[in-house]
Amino acid sequence: MTDPNTVQLTEDGRLKHFLTTEGLSRELLTEILDTADSFISTQERAVKTVPLLRGKTVVNLFFENSTRTRSTFELAAKRLSADILNLDIARSATSKGETLMDTLWNLEAMYSDMFVVRHSDSGAAHFIAEQVTPNVAIINAGDGRHAHPTQAMLDMLTIRRHKGDIEGKIVAIVGDILHSRVARSQIHALRTLGAAEVRVIGPGTLLPSDIESMGAVPYYDMKAGLADCDVVIMLRLQKERMQNALLPSEGEFFKLYGLTEEKLAFAKPDAIVMHPGPINRGVEIESAVADGNQSVILNQVSYGIAVRMAVMAMAMSGQQTPVNSEEPA
Amino acid sequence: MRYLHIANARVINPQTQTDEVTDVFVADGRIATVGRRPDAGEIEHTIDATGQWLMPGLIDLGGHLPEPGYSQKGSIASETEAAARGGFTHICSLPDTKPVADTSAVIKLILEKAGKAGFSRVLPLGAMTQDLAGEQLASMYTLAEAGAVAMSNARRPIKNSYVLRRLMEYAATYDIPLFLNANDLSLSDGGCMHEGPVATRMGLPGIPETAETIALAQILLLVEQTGVRAHISQITCRRSVSMLQQALENGLRVTADTPLANLLFTHEAVTGYNSLYNVQPPLRSERDREALVQAVARGELAISSNHSPHELAAKKAPFSDAEPGMSQYDAFLPQAMTLVTREELTVEQLVRAISVTPANVLGLPQSLTEGADFNAVLYDPEGEYTLSASEIASGGHNHPLLNRTVSGKVAQVFLEGCRIS
After folding, report:
1. 3-state DSSP call for residue A197?
2. Which one of A20, A329, B72, B115 has the fewest CB atoms closer than 10 angstroms to its CB?
3. For residue A90, what pLDDT is reported?
4. A44 Cα to chain B: minimum distance (Å)
């Protein structure tokens, strides 16, 4: 039960859950991007729905509050013609002492076909995928500090659509890498898709130990780290980092790592600026850059729906292939 | 005199550095003779132990008993039965029961229940602070009188260095030994595995090596100052091994142990979020594991079980939410023997670390010599069985070998001449 890919892939190597970008092949990641690309065109039509998940029930199972991510999953499910149920567990079941297993068994009894899961524990989506009955697909919408694979894939799609390809690009991820599931999923995806270099930039307190083992190069100096970059990804800084003795102040963080026009000038002139949102203006990025012509932050949001449609459709199709069909004739 | 005759066993006795195939004769719970028939008397029963190994009974320096307080995880009877099956004649029970073992009533209850169960003998560790809160001294002298063999605070923190110093001074007054865990909670709190590349990749909060080494330095310096008899429980880091070595070179009289799991597994086992491998102290790197094995080989470390039985629900949760610990007593000896089959330890080194060294820590005789209590294990190195859920005696099925084939089998275990498994 160890390798994540024995859990998330079918025997013939297709997605049946989407838990992490780690260990997925370049072909599979590219297939996700190509599928998402094809959905982008449908989003521009007057009738935006496609019938791929008609008759299926998707449950948004959010153990952690998130309006934005949940909304894009909801929209993606609706555009695939699925029925969608939003469960805000953060405020209901588990606060009444119900265990995660009890919650799952209850939901399975409702004959759901797919759970979109967000949970504050690393490995929670993996755990749920191992526990659910067969034929229920799990999409990881963020687990602790571990992974946020749909966010990473929409970032890959953004880079590909704006820079043509990921192959050979230098990408810098700036800020709180330690607590970031987005950064971890991005690093795996970027490495697999052939980025020339993945840099992580931040103070020692916000870079996890042995980050080099994931194939990322740590930088403490923002200007050195941004030199010659094609893509700059800013991460959101949570306020509680100041209370945990990880940072002295927002002001000092902005001085050292806040993205300003001056610092951005060290990157390539055509570098793009990304942010998974929601942004803290004046903390990790100044408004002139967030709203400037190198920023693709709003495009990321619209690609997010297409990427989520793609992985939902692919995982559902991976679930439906009968492995040992024993249905009576 | 009527004798139990154990014939043709490979008798491994590190105390006398003997390892030979011979016969052992037992009467009145003691070893009468080794290698020769007693002068008088008759043989009541002969065990043909051809192909089997006879070694001193195992002694555990720290395992969790779920009683009183955690009946969903097992009982004193179930866990001592599991311990006997694993080869233990004696086990030290950690004081973190509910209520904690900070009163003589709890110590007496444990001793009474264990005595009635009739499996491995329990040597309770008393709580060194009231309610294990790390603030006020528990009545250590009274606990020792009631039968506690030493005092421990499990892995709960001592509030500050002042309290730790006074604890040691007080215990030293009455020559009460302390079992101390090196764990700086301000560095380990919130962590659920070894801090390193695996934790980084998996996004799990890590426990740095310094959580152990800083606390160990503090303990060693205060032991030196107070002169208390101290045993360090459950060290896991390479650096701790060298700190201990240095302390011994400086003439400090301390002993230490490491959990078996830290000799068998590394943090790589956590890959895939298998909550079985969520243990405290955490599994560390291969470098740490190798250093621990070498320290065991040199005789510097005993091996403890850190047995922690859990009910299914406690482990069926996302990794960081699962309760830490492994059930270890069932099949303990066959598991430990894998270090011999992997050729990391000799049989003599292993037996020393699970039997003789712990006996020395506790001041117990545990030897297969004439006149000694017959506390022994008969082990079949060729035995093989599956540790199925119905086969396991512990209430905790969170055992690394559950439903797997176990190579080697504990055939019989004797405590003072009586068969307990």
Report:
1. strand
2. A329
3. 66
4. 37
- Give residues 47 to 106 of A whose Cβ lies within 8 Å of B: 99-101
Q: Same structural domain for residues A308 and A277?
A: no
- The CATH number of residue A113's host domain is 3.40.50.1370
B267 neighbors B287 (Cβ within 8 angstroms): no
**Residue A103 shares a structural domain with residue A174:** no
Please provide the DSSP assignment of B288-344 as one string. Answer: HHHHHHHHHHTT--EEE--B----HHHHSS-GGGSPP-B--STTHHHHHHHHHHTTS
Q: How far apart are CA B400 and CA B261, in angstroms?
A: 9
The whole-number pLDDT of residue A48 equals: 82
User: Rounded distance, CA B263 to CA B297, Å?
Assistant: 12
Q: How far apart are CA A12 and CA A9, in angstroms?
A: 8
pLDDT in tens, A51-61: 999 999 999 99
For B312, nearest residue in chain A (alpha carbons): A101
Containing domain of residue A240, as a range?
149-300
Structural domain for B380, as ranges: 2-54+371-419
Nearest-by-Cβ selection for B196 from A144, A184, A209: A209
Q: Which of B322, B341, B362 is the last residue of a domain?
A: B362
User: For chain A, what is the domain count?
Assistant: 2
**CB within 8 Å of B186: residues ≥ 6 apart:** none
Structural domain count of chain B: 2
Mean pLDDT of B149-161: 95
List chain A residues with CB under 8 Å of B204.
122-123, 144-146
A130/A244 same-domain check = no
Supply the pTM of this predicted model. 0.93
Q: Is B202 left (phi over 0), alpha (psi -120 to 50) or beta?
A: alpha
Residue A77 lies in a domain: yes
Spatial separation of the C-alpha atoms in residues B311 and A288, rounded to whole Å: 56
B259 by DSSP, 3-state: which? Answer: strand
Is the domain of A73 the same as that of A195? Answer: no
Q: Considering chain A, what percentage of its residues have pLDDT values greater than 70? A: 93
Collapsed DSSP state (helix, strand, coil) of residue B388: coil
Give the residue among B63, B53, B62, B61 at the shortest CA–CA distance from B14: B53
Is residue A206, in this structure, part of any structural domain at all? yes
**Tokens 């003779």, residue?**
B33
The interface residues of chain A toward chain B in range 103-142, judged by CB-CB distance below 8 A, are: 119, 121-124, 126-127, 131
**Helix or strand or coil: residue A87?**
strand
> Which residue of A119, A121, A243 to mutate against B (max B Cβ within 10 Å)?
A121
Q: Give yes or no: residues A265 and A193 share one domain.
A: yes
Same domain, B11 and B31: yes
